[in-house]
Amino acid sequence: MTAVKLKNGQKLNNQTVEGLTAAGCTQSDIARLTGADQSTISRMLKKMDAERTSIGEFVKVRAMIMQSMQAKTSMVRFKILDSLLNTDFNDPNITVKEKGDILKALTIAQATDFDKERLEQGKSTQNIATWSAIIKKTTGES
Fold first, then answer.
1. N or C terminus: fewer CB in 10 A for the chain?
2. Is the confidence at residue 131, as pLDDT, over 80?
């Protein structure tokens, strides 16, 4: 939380200015109520506006980065799945634990995808508890 030191020695923080603004106070009202100059209130509000804009731009870019990462992750998962389709799971060199680990990882990935899809549709993701219980029961985890 950013604060400005006033002439009277008191500190005025962004939260106070934002709260008074949200309550409908003008810059002059806030200045009078807090003992700050109106120009100080104006500078604080401009800085907060700039910070909000920066955060909004970051969120937009972050969403694009996350979408790109998800797409790449999906492509890698498809390649791994394709290679697993050609794997002889009866091969004695693949242990039961390795098979279980592969099954667990695939199940978790599928459950995550299912939850994302349901979230995008505005539906419940309660199934995560169900999937967790199934995984624990299947793998013998407690």
1. C
2. no
